[in-house]
Amino acid sequence: MGWNEYKPNVVTESLTRLVEEVASKLGGVIIHGLDEERGTEEAVIKFVGVDVDEVLKELERIRLEIERIGEESGSGATISIGVYVGPITSLKTQPMSEAKKTPEVVMALRALKKAKKRGGNKIVVL
User: Fold this and answer.
1) Where are the domains of the chain?
2) Looking at the chain, which terminus has fewer C-beta neighbours within 10 angstroms, N or C?
3) Which residues, in sequence order, are CB contacts of 68 under 8 Å at separation 6+?
């Protein structure tokens, strides 16, 4: 789209807001990725003691909103989401290189990869 990668565009700015909203609403901890200065392109959020169906409902809302924005902006932007349901080993904010070492993030990334392989614009749960 020719958007400046160093400042938010309509998609990354919206994703920043949506990630903040869902984390706040459901008590999630944003481990990695929220970037208000440049716009959020990826994020890792961990939820503890939250109904999985409620989390999935909110993630579907985000998916649909990004799809709508992609259509309206002419960018065709969509979002793929990988979800892991299981034990959590850490709730500390950290760089992705460190977060990738935790079993739950490894599994979430595996789910994300499956979502992308299925054509993107999907939510995959493992």
Assistant:
1) 10-125
2) N
3) none
